[in-house]
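Action item from last week, closing it out:
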Amino acid sequence: MKDKLTKIRELMTEVTATALTFLCLGIIVQLLLNDTLFGWDPVGNVKDAGNTFIGVIAIILLYILFIRKNN
């Protein structure tokens, strides 16, 4: 059972890291093009969410860094 939970935790960590990578890439591309990406507006979404969204992202990044440091 412990092995399955460890695998799930590793999978969730990788999925979250991948999602954050796509978000960062989307923001960079949108800033370079100065237009939405196929109807997706990552910069606008971050602006609308405000400090809460940035705080959640910071906590997730710190968690991922902590997990990778301990492995």
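Closing note: The mean pLDDT is 80.
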